[in-house]
Amino acid sequence: AQSVTQLDSHVSVSEGTPVLLRCNYSSSYSPSLFWYVQHPNKGLQLLLKYTSAATLVKGINGFEAEFKKSETSFHLTKPSAHMSDAAEYFCVVSTPAAGNKLTFGGGTRVLVKP
Amino acid sequence: GAVVSQHPSRVICKSGTSVKIECRSLDFQATTMFWYRQFPKQSLMLMATSNEGSKATYEQGVEKDKFLINHASLTLSTLTVTSAHPEDSSFYICSAGGLSYGYTFGSGTRLTVV
Q1: Neighboring chain A residues of B24 at a CB cutoff of 8 Å
Q2: How many CB atoms neighbour CB B105 within 10 A?
Q3: Which residues of B touch A109 (CB under 8 A)?
Q4: Which of A13, A38, B17, B35 has its CA 20 to 30 A from that of A93?
Q5: Residue A104 Cα, gap to closest chain B Cα (Å)
Q6: Over the stretch B52-72, which tens digit does the pLDDT of each residue have?
């Protein structure tokens, strides 16, 4: 079985300060991990993905995430938040054992204060 | 990049009627598409996996007679909500792709049943 836990349902940051979104996963096999962003009433946009290559993954819009197997974590970071980063973020896991289906975390809503 | 088009973006229907939602892969062929449901302020839940030329695979607890899925071509999957009721009101999102190339999501359909 696979599961994802996003440790914070809401994160509030000031514009220009770092953003940290925490994600822990559970998987019996080597997982593929994704971060998606969703703006209100919109579909999901892929920020980055980890598929057993480099553990530090760089994505779009200045985001990056680090896969830490020992901690079963895949936290998302950005050094400097922008107002346009205000959105819902989902950490997602997939494994061949689960038929490559995606399992979503509960989501983290990011608020960026001016 | 891969594009998935979902239509309509919003639909309001009367209780007891049926609604069809289309999901198209615009620049690639998709033998498999996925349908998700998202309640307000919640995460995405996989409803079913749509397989081109064969029956869809439904997740546990999803009524296959209520949520009819047809995947008649490599670029089109449809979800029909039959005899809709207010509790079916939700945000429905489709996706296509796989681990190798990534999963692309449609922009979603907001269904309101009155």
Answers
A1: none
A2: 24
A3: 41
A4: A13
A5: 6
A6: 888 999 999 999 999 999 998
